[in-house]
Recover the amino acids of this structure.
């Protein structure tokens, strides 16, 4: 008798677990929670891109064919391109005030770290600089869209750090924008920089996240 009752209790518990799990899945699927992004929603659509040669568009047939130029065309919006070839996170941090904060942007795209890897800058220093960049931008009132880059040839030593950084700082995030591009001769201009096709793929990765930010912009009301 007790054995049969025990089986019924177990079945009841399992049924409850599956029911709760199913409800949770439906809620998560159709009513996703708002990501904890600092300064979200953006107060406007003034965008600045801080980065290195990838942001500048080196390797593209024209700077308009770099990923920033492609995003500008896709969304019919101006993006101030502050990409400087050869920049490390330290150099990006040094010019943050003059190139970014003085412009009072609403959204800042940050793509740095590739040159740090090439110059063998310690990983801890790289992500300390990035965190300083992000928090200073956020204190200025802007949303940060952080773009990850690969930190290694055979193994991506930056992947977990970028994910943790985005979560810790409350940044919108696109992981490893060169994933599936670097190493593919059809998409690379040289060993480091994409060609037009490669930049198109980067733009395609960034666009969905940027679009969500732009759609959430609070309309300015006239007095």
């Amino acid at each position: 008798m007790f054995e049969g009752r025990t089986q019924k209790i177990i079945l009841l518990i399992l049924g409850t677990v599956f029911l709760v799990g199913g409800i949770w899945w439906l809620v998560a699927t159709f009513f996703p929670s708002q990501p904890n992004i600092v300064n979200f929603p953006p107060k406007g659509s003034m965008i600045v891109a801080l980065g290195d040669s990838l942001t500048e568009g080196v390797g593209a047939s024209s700077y308009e064919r770099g990923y920033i130029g492609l995003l500008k065309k896709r969304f019919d919006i101006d993006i101030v391109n502050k990409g400087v070839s050869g920049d490390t996170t330290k150099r990006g941090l040094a010019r943050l005030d003059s190139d970014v904060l003085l412009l009072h942007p609403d959204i800042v795209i940050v793509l740095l770290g590739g040159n740090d890897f090439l110059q063998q800058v310690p990983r801890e220093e790289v992500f300390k600089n990035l965190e300083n960049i992000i928090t200073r931008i956020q204190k200025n009132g802007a949303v940060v869209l952080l773009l990850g880059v690969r930190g290694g040839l055979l193994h991506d030593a930056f992947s977990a750090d970028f994910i943790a950084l985005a979560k810790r700082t409350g940044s919108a995030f696109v992981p490893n924008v060169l994933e599936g591009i670097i190493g593919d001769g059809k998409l690379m201009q040289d060993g480091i920089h994409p060609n037009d096709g490669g930049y198109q793929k980067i733009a395609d990765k960034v666009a969905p996240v940027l679009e969500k930010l732009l759609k959430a912009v609070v309309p300015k009301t006239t007095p």
